[in-house]
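Troubleshooting log. The previous structure file for this entry was overwritten by mistake, so regenerating from the original sequence record. Sequence copied from the archived sheet and checked twice against the printout by T.R.
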Amino acid sequence: MAEFRRVPVNGTELEVADWGTGEPLLFVQTALMADEFLPLAEDAALREGYRKVLYHRRGYAGSAPARGSGSVERDARDCAALMTGLGIERAHILGGSYAGAVALQTAVDSPDRVHSLVLLEPPPTITFRAPEFRAAVERMVQDSGERGPSAALAEFLDTFGWSTDFLESSVPGSSRQVERDAATFFGTDLPALLTWRFGLEDARRVRCPVLHLGGAESGPYFAEVREAVRRWFPGAGDVVIPGADHAMACTHPSAVGSAVASFLSRHPM
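Regenerated output below.
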């Protein structure tokens, strides 16, 4: 069962849950919802054979506040430094959405630390529609600056069809957490996405096995993300979860967990 404690990392402190025994499987926290991957981490398919590490990035839940300009590269350094602090030499790394960017960057910057890479729909900044996506992100950042994070958050959740009931049914307590951490999402994570660049030359530096999981209902942005990953990593695993969208880790943890477990069993440490 996940129990969190603070661990010193890169001059800050991150809240970390570390449980189970076996091959290390590290869940990089995505943006906005601190425990979005908790249902997946606790799924029966991943219950045995893995030491699971799930942590909260700077500015989320019980971790120290995010100070200064955020960047995907800084989050990747935090990820590698956390592994060092926990005595983990190599791990399977799982990230989705914003955390998919962090996972990819970690695999480039610290290749010897990443045994395999599991990606749940990284951000559309890696696709041909990146300019369109960045323009939408810029509008959200501007809206937060003009109306405040709470007002911008309400519009963002409505756009994605996420309600308080949905958040609470996924992870109890998450609606309050999302409200508390909205300033980090709009003020640190979204600006970090605007400056992050990752292309074919970066992908060629990823040396580990890769699995991409997508939701059948995630829409055109993430359909293009899937195609980009398949183009960059021709031998990558590719799984589409029927009936799922971008929130698949919360809504379909068993289907996602089974796919992840199958992939990891084919690439043991």
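Residues 104 and 162 are 27 Å apart (CA to CA). Archived copy saved in two places this time.
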